[in-house]
Design brief:
By secondary structure, this protein is α+β, with helices and mostly antiparallel strands. The protein has helices at about 1-5, 10-90, 90-110, 145-150, 195-205, 230-235; strands spanning about 115-120, 125, 155-160, 165, 175-185, 185-195, 215, 220-225. The strands form two sheets. Strands 1, 2, 3, 4, 5 and 6 form a six-stranded antiparallel sheet that branches.
């Protein structure tokens, strides 16, 4: 301060003006930075929302198509086949049912890039189209998958987290989706297993920010790229926000 007093009046005025200009520049710069930061953040959020919306629409449309095929398959063929066998329960009807269910599964899902496999699970046995080798240690009707429907009888569809296919042999990771139908007081289940690798490929092809994308189910279980780090992020959100 004493040094400032020793300056001539004119010099003091110049220094005061310089200080005022510097403070004004800092204040304006800070305000502009905050404005640009908020605007950039808003644009980023908007872009992310658009990306998520587009991704969700694509996957929802794919699943809607698969679900329609499942219901069409059940109502047009499975209902009559299984109902017929439930009444007769003879070997010839069983063999006929094996062949026709194999054909309808192949016709319904042949060429669908997202379908790994499909099977029909009943109290009479498990039916598929014989393109994959069955894991005979797995019994759907005795599994935790079936137990979920026993504990939640009002549910007619359930997604399960990514896992190695429980029904068929191999190491490919799938995302099982199970549909439940009611037939003559019996539950009939259609399990469609989605290829995690194909969903992964779609995301890589379409989105540059693939490494920042992950998908979880309603219980925060892994569907795509949702490991411990991503699950910790989900813990910050309420179920309503998710």
């Amino acid at each position: 301060m004493s040094l400032f007093k020793n300056f001539r009046f004119r010099t003091r005025i110049i220094l005061v003006c310089i200080v005022i200009l510097l403070l004004n520049s800092i204040a304006c710069g800070s305000i502009y930075y905050n404005y640009v930061f908020k605007d950039t953040l808003k644009n980023y959020y908007s872009s992310s929302e658009d990306m998520v919306s587009q991704m969700r629409m694509h996957l929802t449309n794919e699943m809607r198509s698969i679900t329609e095929q499942v219901h069409a398959m059940y109502s047009t063929v499975l209902y009559s086949l299984i109902s017929d066998y439930a009444q007769k329960q003879d070997s010839s009807t069983y063999v006929k049912m094996l062949g026709e269910i194999s054909d309808i599964i192949s016709e319904s899902y042949q060429g669908d890039r997202y379908i790994h496999s499909a099977s029909i699970e009943t109290e009479f046995g498990s039916f598929s189209n014989f393109t994959r080798i069955k894991n005979h240690d797995f019994k759907f009707m005795d599994s935790s998958m079936k137990k979920y429907f026993d504990e939640n009888p009002q549910e007619t569809i359930c997604w399960y987290p990514a896992m190695v296919s429980p029904i068929f042999q191999g190491n490919e990771v799938v995302i099982p989706v199970v549909y439940k139908f009611r037939l003559d007081r019996r539950d009939i289940f259609v399990m469609v297993s989605l290829k995690q690798s194909e969903i992964d490929s779609y995301l890589k092809e379409v989105y540059d920010s693939y490494n920042q994308i992950f998908i979880a189910d309603k219980d925060n279980r892994n569907i795509i790229n949702c490991e411990e780090k991503e699950q910790n992020i989900l813990n910050y959100f309420s179920s309503e926000e998710i």
